[in-house]
Model the fold of this input.
Amino acid sequence: MGTLCSRPPDPVATSDLVEMLADGRPFVIREYVHFFGDATAPDVVTSLGADKELAQLTMPDEWYVQDRRELDLVVSYLPAVADVPGWLAFLDTVIERYGHLTRFLQVTLEPNFPIPLIDGSAPGVVEALTLGLPYARGALDRRGLHDVRVGFSVAEPAEWLGGDDEFWRRLSALPYQDFAAHVDYVGLGLYPDAFSPVAPRGTPGDTASLTTHALHHLRSRSLPRAHIPPSVPIHIAENGSPSGAPRTEQAQCDSLSDMLDAILAAAESLNIAQYELFSLRDADSGSTQPTGTLGIVTDTYRAKPALAVYRDVIRAAGRRSAARHA
Done:
């Protein structure tokens, strides 16, 4: 699912696309709710489409638990002023509202990534993560929701932003039992060719090699620093490539194929347990901004070539899984 689109959503079209992609198998749906505190301007809340999130997500509640769907709910921390007590209260509110629908609860969105409207830019975000994740686990358990998996996500290696060593250094200073022991999975936001130029396909520094680097960087370098062992799975929490000008829909298709091939090749050795595409539908198909055209259908629900690539990969993976368990 995306967040805010230029055209109204069509719930029937959305449901039909998800049903076609799932093909009768379990299928994870990612949604977002945001904590802003009391000092955030109302127009910021509206710009993210976040003003009615606690009333309803993209689809009606019952849809998320039908036909083997699994809800991955992201609770994003974006206050203008640090507010950890308010954040913990918000986690309680979200769990009370949506916990019974949720399979995966992600506490903060990319807290290692300090750009506007991403949690890494919010004051107090590391405390929000390190106190919030164990708190969420306890809040779920108190409600008997023991099967909900709790984790957090990070952005792909942030060398081009000057690195994220300080974030991982702060996690490394925490005793295992205070934080890492409560982490069921770690998500990775992966957009290697979305926001920066990359090398031509088939050469060092291309989309495939950057994908492989990001996966190994997280597993081999970052997670050990936070005392998170190899037994904790990685989820590809977001992955996409834009199709808007000067790019093309075919280039998006090629990029998605290369990224999926690299992820599947590393899945067993790096314990990558889950993949989620961002996103199903364009936010604005006429936009030249990368965030506008990450969908595999346009904002009018016309299929792009990438839809068939994604569908075929899902079905092939499903057949392999069925064969292993036969």
Q: What stands out?
A: The domain at 11-324 is CATH 3.20.20.80 (TIM Barrel). The chain has one domain: 11-324. The first strand starts at residue 27 and ends at 35.
